[in-house]
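Marked as duplicate of an earlier ticket. Keeping the data here for the record.
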Amino acid sequence: MTGLTVRTIRYYIKEGLIPRPDHRGPATVYTKNHALRLKAIKLLRKRDRLSIPTIKARLTALSDEGVEALLSPPRPTPPVPVVPTSLGLGESWEHIELMPGLKLLVSTPASPVVQRLASEIVAQYRKPVAAQER
């Protein structure tokens, strides 16, 4: 289901990346959340090339819903109002409002890596208007 060997899964349990299953031996049962976390580990190792300690810290901070969101394809974000600002020395910055009181500044033009990271931040932290009003 995850494409990982039993040995690798046991290593991840030993390192604290995933919780121990309720039963051991032939009766071992892994839950959906175990599978999601294992898939997240594979993704973070392959795509982001993160170390085991970094992955452990990131996954520890995430709820099961957060892990699912990490594995979900990026949602298309609505067009971002661009407010270019010159800070001198020929630099220009795009202001992206993530929520009232919180803005992300991105240099323009930005490299593809910076653009991708900014898009990921916007997808992760930008709150819909209805959620902001709660």
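See parent ticket for discussion. Residues 6-71 form one domain.
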